[in-house]
Input
Amino acid sequence: MTDIACVHRGRATLGESPVWEAASGAVWWIDGAAGIILRHVTSAATTESWALGQGIGSIALRATGGLVCAAETGFHLFDPAQGIAMPIACPAIAAEGLPFNDGKCDPEGRFWAGTMDEGTRQGALWRLDPDLTVTRVAGGFAVPNGLNWDQAGRRFLMADSADQTIWAWDCDPDSGRITNRRVLARTEGAAVPDGSAFDAEGHLWSAEWDGWRLSRHAPDGSLSGRIDLPVGRPTSVAFGGADMRTLFITTAAWELDATALAAQPLAGSLLAVRVAVPGLPVPDFAA
Output
């Protein structure tokens, strides 16, 4: 097995949404089920946490400081210095009443996040623009995960975990409109595609829930690499470190019984692995 480091040992029910903050050498992530935001400064090996008071699907850094969050009650701007979350009004999201899951910023600095509906597949993909207007981009999803764009912002990827499929779309960077949905890759057996990140060669590293691994997909979707993990439920990945060759991995202890937890004591921890090809920086929310 490739050497896997434990960056922060914890028991997050649903560790998710890792984000690298280059200016401070810190990695942010969440325990989504517990509604907790965490920040680990790698040079000092110290970790801070904040309770948002509601479930969280995903976070991103803001260009002006702080975070944007896709939370249980909608989009919020979060100021860690004050511990205050400011909700962004959107009656359409409130009327939908579905929880947010994964999210990320596109190259234009807009924050996208998907809502979940495993029963009737009424989950949707929403976009928060820097002027704080909200747009419903597309619908018909069960569990949106792993949002990513190529460097030009012309190809958009997103997994629907319920389909065990990573989908690709063409994307218009100016309007944010997505078209021409097609299959990029599918997972095998019990493995489910979760959060993901692009490297500098345009290959996608995808965490596979219940797969005990990360998989690397070439631009045509073919498998170009794999890393086995000591935990069964990796949830997402983010590149970081001074050379962007550290792949941070969030993990979950979700619904694992005592026997399963004893077999994987790092479940719920923040892990890291060194990779040969550096990753691409993820844009901040431009507000």
User: Anything to note?
Assistant: The chain has a mean pLDDT of 97. The first helix runs from residue 91 to 96. Residues 35 and 52 are 5 Å apart (CA to CA).
